[in-house]
Amino acid sequence: MWFPFSLTTIPSDDDNGDDDLVSIPDIAEVTSEGGDGDRSLRCSLAPKDEFPVLLVGCLMSLAQGSSMVSFLGSIGYFSHRYTLPQLVLYATIAQSLITPAILDLQRRFDHVFDKQFGLKATFLFRIGGLSLLQILLLISAPYLASPISFLTACSLSATIFIAVYSQVVMVVSCVDGAQAVNFARTASHAGGVVVLLFVWIFDISTKSQLPAVMGFFASAVGLQLVALAAWLREHAKNESLTAAYAVIAEQQAYSAMVAVKKSMSPRSNSKKAGGGYTLLTMFGSNHSNQGLVLLLSFGIVQATWSYIQSVLNVFGNEDFTQWLVLLSYPADLLGRLVSHVAHGCASSAILKVPLLVYHCITAAAALICVVLTVDASLKFLPTAYVSSTVCVLCCMVAFNLNELAVQSIHLAKCRSQVAHCQNYVFFSATGLAKIAALFLQLCSGYL
User: Fold this and answer.
1) Contact, 414 vs 284, CB < 8 A?
2) Are 172 and 76 in contact (CB under 8 A)?
3) What's the CATH code of the domain at 332?
4) Into how many domains does the chain fold?
């Protein structure tokens, strides 16, 4: 089997002989944390492999994001077609219904299949095979005749998106630097801006005709085909992506070794090593609490936006709802670009910003969410103010998500695990927010 690096061995903490030798890549950095002997594995790609991996990863994230968002981007048309103003709520619930379960299943069992079949085969199936299913869903979208079929397609599209995207960010996390994962995340959210462009080109609204809607979804299919072709080409070259798979394999092997050693330690109450990952394997013993707080703040700030996104129909008619949905996409991208530019200009200074600042932004987003919730009942904000407030909230949330993600990756002991866990927290928070939005609309008589 070809490896992108040579392998060396180092003694484990106990130095008890050959049985404790652990294989690690020579490009990996193993550091000691504190006085308890905890060690951290830092793996990254060789410089020549970083750009190809980042390029195909961001392109796939962009295509998958566009595919999933295309259902919401045309929500005004389908709401009018089905005479169902609350479709935006049902659609966002459908898109978040299964994703936490999918991520949990991946967390528990992906490493088992990776070990049995090899990462190159499993990643090809998860990314290439599922992308083909996404294309089939997009082709069928204009012909969905009922709300049930539309919501089913929404749910399946989101399920495929998160199954593919979670693998993409694991691959991209092999690129050196805490911002690499955020580039992929920003690319997926930039899919909303791409959909906004498609909506403008085909003039999608409540008055659209079937040929225009077919052209709209065909454009999303074209982008997905380009991304799939680029990924398969890089995969077939057996170079950069294969190097990333090897790095992930080393991280998984090292984390499994740490889990086994902890379970055998006299200080551990565990009888056997568990699968998947834990706060300990993600952040190490010295940063577990700090990592937990970052993940909680990450989930709360995402929940604020996800909740408001699900109740946009209460602020106006179908066209205004679609306008608010589409308006949020450039606002989201702006927040993420501000974060990227800040890190590009003063990365070291940004990383020194106290974490309390980001938690305060989370609190401010929650406050804006409360104001908009009150306005949903009292209608005291003019339409222009509602649009502006929704944009500000979306921009704040996007910026803060990026910064909290960077801080989490910066503390990470195993980046690929933290990157996957961020997705799990993201979509779990999204699901809880959708339930809260459903409750609000039930109590307010919108359903």
Assistant:
1) no
2) no
3) 1.20.1250.20
4) 1
Closest CA to 258 of 226, 228, 281: 281
Look up residue 225 and give its amino acid.
Answer: L
Give CA–CA dist 107/128, Å, rounded. Answer: 20
Q: From CA 309, how far away is CA 176, in angstroms rounded?
A: 34
d(CA 28, CA 5): 10
21 part of a folded domain = no
User: For residue 56, what are its two tokens?
Assistant: 């195909």
pTM of the model as a whole? 0.70
Nearest to 171 by CA among 240, 74, 92: 240
Whether residue 101 is contained in a domain is answered as: yes
Q: Following CA atoms 7, 9, 12, 17 in sequence, which dihedral angle do they give, to the nearest 10 degrees? A: 140
Structure tokens given for 80: 């009018």
Domain limits for position 182: 47-243+277-444
pLDDT digits (tens, 9 = 90+) for 280-327: 777 877 778 888 899 999 999 999 999 998 888 888 888 888 889 888
